[in-house]
Amino acid sequence: MSQSNDIYGVERWGKGLFSINDKGEIALKNPLSEHAKPVSLVEILDSLEERGIATPVLVRCTNMLQAQIQRINQSFKGAIEELGYQNSYQGVFPIKVNQQAQVIDRIVEFGQPYNYGLEAGSKPELLIALGHQLPKDALLICNGSKDAEFIRLALLSLQIGFNTVIVLESIQELDLVLKESKAMGIKPLLGIRIKLTNQVKGNWAASSGDRSAFGMTSEHVVDVIDTLREHDLLDTLILQHFHLGSQVPDINDVRHSAVEAARFFVELCKEGVPLKYLDLGGGMGVDYTGEHRSTENSVNYSVEEYCRNVIESVMNQVDRAGLAHPTIVTESGRATVANSSLLLFNVLSVSQYHAEKNLTLPEDAHELLKDMVSILEYAKSDRLQEGFNDIAYYRSEVRAAFRRGQVSLRTLGLAEQAYRHVVNHLRSAAQRMEWISDDVHEVLSSHTDIYHANFSIFQSLPDAWAIDQIVPVCPIHRLNEAPTRRGIISDITCDSDGKINHFALTDGVHHSLPLHDLRDDEPYYLGAFMVGAYQETLGDLHNLFGDTNVVTIELDENEGFHLLHEVEGDSIATVLSYVEYDPQRLFGTFKQIVESAVSNRRISPAERRTIIDAYRDSLNGYTYYEH
Hints:
Blueprint: H1 2-8, H2 10-14, E1 18-20, E2 26-28, E3 39-40, H3 41-50, E4 57-61, H4 62-83, E5 89-94, H5 101-111, E6 117-120, H6 123-130, E7 139-142, H7 148-159, E8 163-168, H8 171-184, E9 190-193, H9 218-230, E10 237-241, H10 251-270, E11 277-279, H11 303-320, E12 327-330, H12 334-337, E13 341-351, H13 367-374, H14 384-403, H15 409-431, H16 438-445, E14 449-453, H17 457-460, H18 462-466, E15 473-475, E16 485-490, E17 499-500, E18 503-505, E19 508-510, E20 513-515, E21 525-529, H19 535-538, E22 549-555, E23 561-567, H20 572-578, H21 583-599, H22 605-619
Parallel strand pairs: 4-22, 5-6, 5-12, 6-7, 7-8, 8-9, 9-10, 10-11, 11-12, 14-16
Antiparallel strand pairs: 1-2, 2-3, 4-13, 13-14, 13-21, 15-21, 16-17, 16-20, 18-19, 22-23
Helix pairs in contact: 4-5, 4-11, 7-8, 10-11, 13-14, 13-15, 14-15, 21-22
């Protein structure tokens, strides 16, 4: 068990939320109760299976979500008390990170004690926010491009008690706000988005710096101040906002940006702007790999360090200017929800690239085949590179001979078998070496097994495909057995991009994952962890694979869980309707085709019924592999 734990790094990226039990199964730990016994993911799957809920399934754990909201808020509170900051912290959750109703409902519920608010970047998201009972002092931040309807709705919400702040993204937007405010006779609450000069590192570097899409330069900020003063509305500008971008890996980028934002805050206050809130936007990252360093898939700081650095950076600047401390606001979305969801799926089959240990060539085997096998006689450690070069050459020669019609299909098949056989032996030799060349490493990486899994990467893990986002992936059981194979994960779509080939292990990121042989009549389950941020929102209908089954669970004090909510995955009929088909019309046309076959005596009336029932059942069935 400990050996496999070291392989997959569960303790490193799991941050105490997962453990491995005596059966070698990954179990969920209840972060809200240190005495609660961890609950096995396999037992959860078995229980869901009994209820008729099949894999692939997305599991949301409310305990983890509640614990993370508590941790962020309490960490800011601790930093405020430790440093003597003379104001408070208020968080808001950006709805775009996960718009699912079950997620937003619980964020609002768990955030009540902390005056936790919401951020909306579109009219639909604003409607979601306005459909929730936020705490009296919570903020509702409106970001993004806004038309007149968006602004009118935001202004109207002020009349019913929402603290709705319209964040100005441009001078043109200010003109529209002034026009609608005057027409409606409602005084707005305004924020202004600053475009900082500091640019961060990571996948979302373009969200910061001079070339970021949103925010105003210092020149435009001055124009906003002057315009509001002309209209006697300077007192409505209460919030300053900036955004670093998602998943900022380096704490020094956070610190530098917070200092620059605080400098803008000081200068705006000197201009007579009565700012109350300093909104530092998103950026708090997630350590997906467990490496705890500044890389695109990791971060070099903890939640607690992030909070201390933000408070200290702001405090130093405003103290130097002799100003009152503002209320600190952040829009930490990814860091709030990522840990609380995981995708569980089963493996359907394996394409193995390791040859059998024994290879016997016929006596009349082609000379090229004999040359391939003879490599094993000399390809020791000091000639390993030569062995890889030679096996690649001989296989290429056999393939060329086949194309010219000089060797048979059976010879070609034997050549492929011999190639895998020799590479398998060379692999064993390479594993005993302290260093291998990049060419050898590339060959070995391209000859790992392919585990075909029952999910769609485009639907459930789109960031893994689009931006090479690494999320922890590993078996959720048999971890007390040493894995004997290495492979990549291929999804159920018919697309070569539908694969995962970067994995976070305990000793870093690898191009293959240690895995086990499949057993007859026994499922092999894998889990993709930390998928609560963006993945449900960004998923698409590649090959018309729809949403998976989704369950929301709550771990109890004993060794068990409660199923709080279930959403059935999309049926084929539902997915077809998404792409403008009418399922009933398709069904009607199909019945006509089948009836025509009866009329032409190709099938019997009884066979007609069987065929139509099969079509109807498929329309109403799951888009994924059913077992």
